[in-house]
From TrEMBL:
The lineage of its organism: Bacteria, Pseudomonadati, Pseudomonadota, Alphaproteobacteria, Sphingomonadales. SUPFAM superfamilies: PIN domain-like. InterPro entries: PIN-like_dom_sf, PIN_dom, PIN_Sll0205, TA_system_RNase. Residues 4-122 form the PIN domain. PANTHER family: RIBONUCLEASE VAPC16, RIBONUCLEASE VAPC16-RELATED. This is Type II toxin-antitoxin system VapC family toxin. It holds the Pfam family PIN.
Length: 129
């Protein structure tokens, strides 16, 4: 399976909080046959929230890219088609990070690992529980 890990899932994974991860998401993350992607948009979101809210992160923002690679996860760059697709969703959900992750999951055929119920409105496959 090819999965895109949402921001909260990545932070919980790094913090080693398996009880916060859904059973299916945890299994997907631990299956060596799965490809786990982390969006560049997640790096943007983490850096933004760290700067504006001072969130406690298990990884320094400056080490984010290396930490993703150290987990064996694959960085997914944001393309123009991802950005345009995210902007064209005719949905009330306005979070730009969520819209971009949904667009990436949909266009790249990835299963989004997230507990965020807002993604139910987007046309992408979601897995968590």
């Amino acid at each position: 399976m090819r999965c895109l890990l949402d921001t909260h899932g990545l932070i919980w994974w790094w913090a080693r909080y398996p009880k916060l991860l859904g059973t299916s998401a945890y299994a997907a993350l631990n299956d060596p046959l799965n490809d786990i992607f982390v969006s560049a948009a997640t790096g943007w979101e983490v850096a933004t929230k760290n700067r504006t809210h001072g969130i406690d992160l298990p990884v320094k923002v400056e080490d984010f890219e290396a930490a993703v690679a150290d987990e064996g996860f694959i960085t997914l760059d944001v393309t123009m088609s991802h950005a345009v697709h995210a902007g064209n969703y005719d949905l009330p959900h306005r979070d730009p990070f969520d819209r971009l992750l949904a667009a990436q999951a949909e266009l790249e055929g990835l299963t989004l690992l997230t507990c965020d119920k807002a993604f139910r409105d987007f046309p992408c496959k979601v897995l968590w529980d």
